């Protein structure tokens, strides 16, 4: 066991809920050298401002979205327009050394420079769920072994090359796939059609359907449905909105259809899923 793994504890990690109660309050994050952080909204949405590959910009974080923060790249969070509830986020900060260990243990990862992990917004409901679990564990007295194990898993997951495989022959280009999936993630509540997705890829509907399926192994609508279910699972776990409201936010305007699709993918109803999370 390395010195790092021996010293990982709740004293060397930070897992906390941070709140901006007033409308004009802001949460500002700037990592010092050798630290890395992740932020995800716990309820509602928020505005985030900072710099990424596209330059300086502002975007919106919603449930299931995360922001990854590296040194020398500050970000600022504010309450989203028309959001009436206080801004609440889960904040995880860890030593960058644990990411370097994870990188060195995964020879297939394409992340060599950890600064490339920085992003203002990424749809990562699994990471968001891990963060809320870490927050719960911290506040309920989980020991340092939990902290170390969770941090190692989170680092390994972030560096796993699941989204970085070479494009399949006959599939979409990486730029096309990114444009399409980003459009899906930013418009989950809308009635997204194949024609709209094909337009994002700048190809015909016929060729889009075939190429997207080649790239992902799934039809566009199945991929979209899985994104919606992932977002719904996260909302059910961390938010107090009614189940029908969660369904609408995730693109299921009909409550019965939401329950039916959720059960088919998860194995239980939305209400049962929420109750299990509350008992846990």
UniProtKB/TrEMBL annotation:
Source species, domain of life: Bacteria
Any one Gene Ontology MF annotation carried by this entry is: DNA-binding transcription factor activity
Task: Alphabetically list the UniProt keywords.
Answer: DNA-binding, Transcription, Transcription regulation
Entry annotated with the keyword Transcription: yes
Q: Where exactly are the transmembrane stretches of this chain?
A: none
Q: Where is the HTH araC/xylS-type domain?
A: 178-276
Please give the PANTHER family that the UniProt record associates with this protein.
ARAC SUBFAMILY, HTH-TYPE TRANSCRIPTIONAL ACTIVATOR RHAS-RELATED
Task: State the name under which the record lists this protein.
Answer: HTH araC/xylS-type domain-containing protein
């Amino acid at each position: 066991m390395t010195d790092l793994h021996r010293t990982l504890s709740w004293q060397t990690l930070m897992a906390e809920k941070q709140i901006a109660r007033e409308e004009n309050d802001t949460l500002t994050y700037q990592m010092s050298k050798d630290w890395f952080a992740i932020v995800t909204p716990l309820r509602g949405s928020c505005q985030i401002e900072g710099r990424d590959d596209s330059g300086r910009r502002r975007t919106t974080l919603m449930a299931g979205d995360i922001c990854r923060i590296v040194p020398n790249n500050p970000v600022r969070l504010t309450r989203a327009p028309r959001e009436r509830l206080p801004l609440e986020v889960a904040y995880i900060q860890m030593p960058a050394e644990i990411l370097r260990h994870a990188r060195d243990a995964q020879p297939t990862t394409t992340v060599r420079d950890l600064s490339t992990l920085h992003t203002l917004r990424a749809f990562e409901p699994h990471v968001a769920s891990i963060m809320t679990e870490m927050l719960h564990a911290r506040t309920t007295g989980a020991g340092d072994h939990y902290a170390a194990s969770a941090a190692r898993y989170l680092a390994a997951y972030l560096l796993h090359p699941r989204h970085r495989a070479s494009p399949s022959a006959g599939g979409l280009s990486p730029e096309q796939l990114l444009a399409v999936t980003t459009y899906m993630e930013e418009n989950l509540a809308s009635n997204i059609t194949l024609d709209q997705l094909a337009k994002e890829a700048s190809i015909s509907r016929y060729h889009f359907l075939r190429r997207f399926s080649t790239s992902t192994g799934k039809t566009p609508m199945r991929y979209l449905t899985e994104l919606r279910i992932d977002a719904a699972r996260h909302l059910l776990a961390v938010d107090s909105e009614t189940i029908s409201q969660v369904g609408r936010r995730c693109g299921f305007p009909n409550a019965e259809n939401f329950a039916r699709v959720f059960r088919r993918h998860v194995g239980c109803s939305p209400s049962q899923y929420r109750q299990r999370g509350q008992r846990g």
